[in-house]
Amino acid sequence: KQEVTQIPAALSVPEGENLVLNCSFTDSAIYNLQWFRQDPGKGLTSLLLIQSSQREQTSGRLNASLDKSSGRSTLYIAASQPGDSATYLCAGRGSNDYKLSFGAGTTVTVRA
Amino acid sequence: NAGVTQTPKFRILKIGQSMTLQCTQDMNHNYMYWYRQDPGMGLKLIYYSVGAGITDKGEVPNGYNVSRSTTEDFPLRLELAAPSQTSVYFCASSYSSGPLAEAFFGQGTRLTVV
C-alpha cells in the first residue's frame, strides 16, 4: 500500500525566496506523481504530473523532481510571491492501483 | 471548459437524513472517483468507477453508495447521515489509470451532519 508523507505541515517564507516542498512515498513501483494546489475552501488544481519514467517536470516557476529509488519528490517554486500562498498536496499512483494516495499537504504562507 | 462539476457546494444534514452528492464531467473520462478530505488528513478514496456500469470500493466506503449509469455522471449517496460523515467531498476524473493519467478535481461539497 502506498503511503505518502509531506513534511513540514506548514511553511512561512518572505517574498522572493525559493520554496522547496517535500513529498515522500513508500512504494517505488509508482506510475506517476502529481502535485496539486488547494486554496482555502476550494478544490484541487493540478500543477504538475511526473510519469515514472521522468526525472522532472517544469511549468513556469514550478519544477518538480522524482527520485523513485529514494522514494522522494520535490516541488520547487522559484521567486515566491504572496499569491503562491496555498496548501500544496502531492499524490502518487501505484502501478497496480487505480487510486491516488495523498499526503496531508504543506500549507505555505509567503509574506509580503 | 467546465471540467468536473459538483453540486451542491454546501449542505447541512441532520443525523439519519439521506442525500445525493452530484458529480458530472464533460471530458469523456472513463475513470471517476470520490474522495473525502478531513482536516489535517490526506484525501481518502471512498469509491471509484472505471466506466459506466462498473464501480468498486475504495478505502472508506462504509455509509456510502454510488452508481455510474453514464460516462458523465457519478453520484454519491449517503443513506443515513452520521456526524462522522462531516467532511469535504471531492469528485475527480481521469482519462485512464496509466502513467499519463492526470486527475482533475471538482470544487468540492462541504457537508456538515448535525
Topology, element by element:
The complex is a heterodimer of chains A (112) and B (114).
Chain A: E1 4-5, E2 10-14, E3 19-25, E4 30-38, E5 44-51, E6 56-59, E7 62-67, E8 72-77, E9 86-94, E10 100-102, E11 106-111
Parallel strand pairs in A: 2-11
Antiparallel strand pairs in A: 1-3, 3-8, 4-5, 4-9, 6-7, 7-8, 9-10, 9-11
Chain B: E1 4-7, E2 10-13, E3 19-25, E4 31-37, E5 44-51, E6 54-57, E7 64-66, E8 76-78, E9 87-94, E10 104-105, E11 109-113
Describe the protein.
The complex is a heterodimer of chains A (112) and B (114). Chain A is globular, with a radius of gyration of 13 Å. Chain A has 112 residues and is an all-beta fold. In chain A, the strands form two sheets. In chain A, strands 2, 4, 5, 9, 10 and 11 form a six-stranded mixed beta sheet that branches. Chain A has strands at 4-5, 10-14, 19-25, 30-38, 44-51, 56-59, 62-67, 72-77, 86-94, 100-102, 106-111. In chain A, 0% of the residues lie in helices and 58% in strands. Chain B is globular and about 40 Å long. The N and C termini of chain B lie far apart (36 Å). In chain B, the strands form two sheets. In chain B, strands 2, 4, 5, 6, 9, 10 and 11 form a seven-stranded mixed beta sheet that branches. A four-stranded antiparallel beta sheet of chain B has the order 1-3-8-7, with no helix packed on it. The relative contact order of chain B is 0.33. With 114 residues, chain B is an all-beta fold. Chain B contains no helices and eleven strands.
